[in-house]
């Protein structure tokens, strides 16, 4: 789809938001060896775009992509460690997108850098039976209303 030009006068700061990742600090996540630079986060919809950096051997535990997930591998490789696509490898310069409802455990055996886009945060399945978001908050209480309001 082509970009749409607004019909009313606007300034660059009203429709363009420049993000300078090189000037941002890496933020630790609750997952060992995984850091992020959040480039876009819309709290009202859950839309997220982030640079994700993984140390060698880092694992993103059992999670479900509630809506479409998109990942472009900038460095390293992303491997499905468990799940229906177990063994799938996405290498540097490759792009993967996953259907809504896809579930897996991902890892970066050699480390990696990815650009990841989510339409709503993932559901993480904890060993104690809880379902949480990336911050460890109860997924249903934080995100189900957003999902149901669509």
How many strands in all? Answer: 11
Largest sheet: 11 strands, antiparallel
Q: Strand portion, in percent?
A: 35-45%
* Termini separation: 22 Å
Order of helices and strands: HEEEEEEEEEEEH
Compute the average pLDDT: 89
Q: How many alpha or pi helices? A: 2
State the low-pLDDT regions, or none.
none
Q: Please state the overall shape, judged from the principal axes of the Cα atoms.
A: globular
| Multimerization status | single chain
What is the percent of helical residues? Answer: under 10%
What value does the Rg take, in angstroms? 16 Å
The helix-and-strand class reads mainly beta
Brief summary of the model shown:
This protein is 9% helix and 43% strand. The chain has 2 helices and 11 strands. It has helices at 12-15, 139-148, and strands spanning 27-28, 34-41, 48-54, 58-65, 69-82, 89-91, 95-98, 102-108, 112-118, 123-125, 131-132.
């Amino acid at each position: 789809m082509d970009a749409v030009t607004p019909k009313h006068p606007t300034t660059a700061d009203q429709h363009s938001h420049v993000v300078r990742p090189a000037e941002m600090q890496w933020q630790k996540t609750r997952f060992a060896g995984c850091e992020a630079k959040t480039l876009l986060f819309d709290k009202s919809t859950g839309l997220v775009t982030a640079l994700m950096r993984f140390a060698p051997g880092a694992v993103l535990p059992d999670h479900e992509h509630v809506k479409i997930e998109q990942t472009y591998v900038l460095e390293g490789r992303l491997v499905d460690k468990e799940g229906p696509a177990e063994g799938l490898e996405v290498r540097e310069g490759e792009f993967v997108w996953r259907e809504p409802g896809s579930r897996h455990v991902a890892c970066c055996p050699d480390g990696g850098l990815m650009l990841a886009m989510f339409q709503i945060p993932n559901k993480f399945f904890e060993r104690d039976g809880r379902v949480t978001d990336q911050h460890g908050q109860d997924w249903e209480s934080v995100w189900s209303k957003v999902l149901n309001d669509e």
